[in-house]
Design a protein that fits this description.
The strands form two sheets. Strands 3, 4, 5, 6, 7 and 8 form a six-stranded mixed beta sheet that branches. The protein starts with a helix and ends in a 5-residue tail after the last helix. The protein has ten helices and eight strands.
Length: 401
């Protein structure tokens, strides 16, 4: 067999193989679409048929597409007629959405039309909805959503305002510029919120500095805001509030400046000149060359190290109270406590500093520190209390709706 004949033969085999693969894919697609049709999954059947028909027309796929589309169309129309006969305005949006489903379904196959069924010598039929029906359904849905939301907003109930908010959002998806829908949306958002006032009070014996109180009052509760919750911490805010969060500081304990000390001694042997070595008779000893024998003389030196420990504590104890302003009831109360510990260690040395050990040398490098003032420890305490307060509120937030 010549080289040319071999090439032609191999090309023929490759083409047959590709054709076989396409047939198998086509058969699998038809089988899958037919299975979806029989199970009532019309949308899947339609989509699979569309995917196949974008590459090649064949009678079986068109027939399956026509059947699935027809069943989906009459299923939706039956539901529309049921809603219309029921006469409940709540279903007006559902009616529009069903009409829109039919229109979207038709638009998905319209680029393929006409689809001709060769074996039946006719074009496949796909029903659509008229513009008048679709626009009419949309207008009725928007009118209902607007009227219902206005009714809910007018009764002043914040939970009804939240329902109105959802309805208006649906309305805006249908018509973003319908009447004053956007203003009504903001009204629903305002009326639907629970407003929570945050306050810090001190009932402790002895006064808490105003600077510390102001620091705690500035706790960033606004970071907890949610769609339906708004927290405010301005003490002079006279707005209407639904709940009140009170940080009640009941006990403030500040220890006096406290220093305790402990001393120890470092000793070391150091050279202190030389002296003659004496023999057993008290005379200067000689070496083998007759020279006087000398030796190094040592002495002991001492250094006293005094370690000083500085300590001061400041504790703030209280509770975080949640109050329902509608009835004045205390909803919950959670303990709040924090302690600041100032602790500093340093050392001083006296005597001969040459006697100091390496460890002692490191200790005396640390200088003493001034004790913090009461205001400083209380303000530091306040900064540490803020995230604790926020976490307590966050844990209880679900009950402030």
């Amino acid at each position: 067999m010549s080289f040319f004949i071999k090439i032609v033969f191999m090309k023929s085999i490759y083409e047959k193989f590709c054709f076989l693969i396409l047939v198998m894919i086509s058969f699998a697609a038809c089988t899958s679409a037919r299975k979806a049709l029989r199970s009532g999954d019309y949308e899947t059947a339609i989509n699979k048929c569309i995917q196949k028909l974008q590459h090649k027309d064949d009678d079986e796929t068109i027939i399956i597409l026509e059947a699935a589309y027809d069943k989906a169309y009459y299923r939706d129309m039956d539901q529309i007629n049921f809603y219309k006969n029921e006469g409940n305005p709540v279903n007006l949006l559902a009616i529009y959405q069903l009409y829109q489903n039919i229109r979207n379904r038709y638009n998905s196959i319209s680029p393929l039309l006409p689809l001709h069924i060769q074996s039946k010598n006719r074009d496949a039929v796909f029903n659509n909805v008229g513009d008048a029906d679709l626009i009419g359904a949309k207008n009725k849905a928007t009118e209902y959503l607007y009227a219902k939301s206005v009714l809910l907003l007018n009764d002043g109930n914040r939970f009804h305002s939240r329902e109105a908010y959802d309805l208006i959002q649906q309305l805006i998806t249908l018509d973003a510029y319908y009447k004053d829908a956007n203003q009504k949306l903001q009204q629903a958002l305002y009326q639907g919120k629970a407003y929570i006032k945050f306050e810090v009070l001190s009932t402790a014996i002895g006064s808490l500095p105003g600077e510390t109180l102001n620091s705690l009052q500035s706790t960033p509760v606004g970071s907890l805001n949610q769609l339906w919750q708004e927290y405010r911490n301005l003490p002079d805010d006279t707005s209407h509030f639904n709940y009140r969060i009170v940080v009640n500081l009941k006990q403030i304990l500040i220890s006096p400046d406290n220093s305790s000390s402990n001393s120890y001694t470092d000793t070391k042997q150091v050279e202190d000149g030389w002296e003659y070595v004496l023999d057993s008779h008290g005379n200067v000893a000689k070496d083998s060359l007759g020279n006087d024998i000398k030796k190094t003389r040592y002495k002991t030196i001492n250094a006293v190290i005094t370690e000083v420990a500085q300590n001061k504590t400041a504790s703030i104890n209280g509770e975080v109270q949640f109050i329902n302003l509608a009835n004045g009831n205390l909803m919950a109360s959670f303990p709040l406590q924090n302690t600041i510990n100032f602790a500093h260690n340093y050392a001083i040395a006296s005597g001969d500093l040459n006697a100091l050990s390496d460890a002692s040398k490191q200790k005396i490098k640390v200088p003493p520190m001034p004790f913090p003032t009461e205001l400083e420890v209380l303000n530091q305490n306040a900064e540490q209390l803020k995230p604790m307060i926020l976490q307590i509120i966050r844990n209880y937030q679900q009950f402030l709706n």
